[in-house]
Hints:
The chain has 186 residues and is of the alpha+beta class.
Amino acid sequence: MKFQKEKKRQLEMKDNSDIGEWDEKILSLCNKINSRKEYYTTSSCAGRAVLIEDCEKKKSGLFLFRSHEKISFSELKKELEKARNKTYGLIYFKQEPCILHVASNSLEQAQKLLDKAKLAGWKNSGIIASCGRIILEMRSTEKLELPAVNQGKILFDDDFLKLLVSEANKKLERTWEKIKKLEKLI
């Protein structure tokens, strides 16, 4: 009963993410997981590309650009130009993989979902016991991270930027395929 009450409370909570709503590309998977009595999702992201200020502590305003869709060369170039004029510090470009946190009612059920996640290619995944809850952290592996701007100077030329956009978009497509694969396995 306690697990079902926690699930009900979690699923009724307001979305506290920076974007304030479910990420469409992972919504169907989350709905499928949440329809099962043994699980509920606590957070999710289908993958994204961002420009972010380098900072040791998380604070608001660090994201200078964020996209949960594929990006274009012209879009990223424009955002780099804007970012370099906003701050004089170090700015990173990151393409991040899908990530999903799921609470489970038992270690056995958590292991079953973890096995499916690994089969679907979510290799950076594991089970965490925290505050009396069993949480699966499932993360795919498609990732890019590199400094993009330092002291107001963009650190790479257009040819490299075009390659970066191409690689980031390929990795986003792969992470979205893994979301669909996991949904089919559940």
